[in-house]
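Supplementary Note 3. Input sequence used for the single-chain structure prediction.
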Amino acid sequence: MRFKNTSETKIVPSIYMIIVAAFVTNIFVNLELMASDNESTITLSHFLPNILLIAFGIYFHRVGQLFDFDSDGETLNFKNNGLFFSKFMEYRVKRAEFPKGKLIDFKVSDYLIFTSLKIYIRSRRKKGPRKYTFNITFLNKKKKRGMIESLKKVLEKNKVES
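The predicted structure, written as discrete structure tokens, is reproduced below.
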């Protein structure tokens, strides 16, 4: 099984642009309010929209990642990549490629606003299992189910062979 979450993440760069435009607009509005004589003090409520926009920007920067999964062949391939500049360069890349026989376990942690996949594999270089964490927030439910079923099949095959 092979898939990407590109169709689900097409909206994220547009959200980045809207957040930046609203942030800059609010800065200029606050500068105009400070320059006017009608209002003598600037309160926290003037900067609250910018604080919220910064929080949304950090959230979308954190979860806005492409996710590639490939279980065809003898290896499992997982890859996270940043979204905003992904057409020009790869940044924030997290990649794991290993034989299917090394998979020990996996766990999908689904919080309300963030979903992650934790993979545990056998490693010769490190004592105990090695853990990789991937962001799968923008993966739709059908692809999540397919990935989980594929990983369960690999685990069952590994248990039979062991």
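Helices lie at 12-35, 44-63, 141-161. The CA atoms of residues 64 and 90 lie 14 Å apart.
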